[in-house]
Amino acid sequence: MTKYQTNKFLFLKIDPPIFSTYPSPLYQRNIGDDVTMVCSGEGDPAPLVAWKKSNSNKLMTSRRNQNGGNLTIAILENGDAGSYDCVVSNVYATIYVTSALVVLRPDETQHQLAAVSSTDYVRLSWQPALTYEKEKILYIWYRPINSSRKPWQNVTFTTNQSDEKSWSDDSSQMRKYDVYHDVIQSRDGSLTATSSFLLPPTNVSASYWPNQGINITWSQSANQSAAGVYSNIEYRLAHGKWVNLTSLPPSLTSYNWKSMSRDAVYHFRLRSLSEKMATWSEPSKEAVVKTFGDSSSQHYHNYLQQNFASWYVAIGMLLVIFAITLVTMVVVMGVKYVRKVRMSKHLPYGHVKYSGANDVRQETRSW
């Protein structure tokens, strides 16, 4: 209260408390996490800021600590969930604001999905997932239930809109719905969820050439381009663990890897990966390839060189044999031709020469 006086009037200025910082209306944390709910106020005199659980006068646990107007609860338990009031008061007034604390269990995803249809729209509602946060993206998948061959279609929206969604739909179709959150992750941040909506790449093959590396090829899955997902390549050595190699956009269907180890057997497989949904497809069939070691690679090159040299020698020998055969055939044919010419000039019986009909002379023989 501020008091001041003029010649005719006495003024009293009263400052009831007001909030200078409002707590969030909703806090959602995983079980075992810590949460801090902020709150502060101002007025004259300076107000007191206190927290209490709704329908209760005090906070009865040692895990709850108030620093100024901020309330921190460490290592959240299921019993910590509920509504909390931030109370700001001075001698003139008391005000309060309520915040809800939701403690999520580790096994929770979107659940209690319900659908209500009318003549011109379908309304879906659900409970939030374990990692529900504001400004995240949800994916609603749907398809006609009487046609399993038709692909799933999806609708996306951010979680700050609400925990329900309505849109126009054909009421003559019976449809199946499901909801996916974009942050289904393990504690270390790795992606763990698999989705039946994503199909793995097909026709996976791997081939190795010295000095060129391992070339991996595949075909896109049926819904990969439509869903806008990536091709994720994994590999392992014999009896080893799977290791992530790289993720490629759906426009690529091959990858050349040159950082492999020598003289090793590699197994490769691919998954379809949606980074926005943080979900994988099931793995594809494996492709197996063996690389050559340094000595094996040199032997391989020597083997090829020796083979090429042998081929050159064999081809040379074939050419020589062909040339000799050709010369022999020419000589033989020449000899035969010369003989034929000579025989055509002489009678077949000694030196007797045949004559034509006009040259025939009658000879008389004396007895």
From TrEMBL:
The keyword Ribonucleoprotein does not apply. GO terms for cellular component: membrane. Residues 200-294 form the Fibronectin type-III domain. It holds the Pfam family Ig_3. Keywords: Disulfide bond, Membrane, Repeat, Transmembrane, Transmembrane helix. Residues 17-98 form the Ig-like domain. The chain crosses the membrane at residues 311-335. Gene3D superfamilies: Immunoglobulins. It comes from the Eukaryota. This is Ig-like domain-containing protein. The lineage of its organism: Eukaryota, Metazoa, Spiralia, Lophotrochozoa, Annelida. The gene is 20207854.
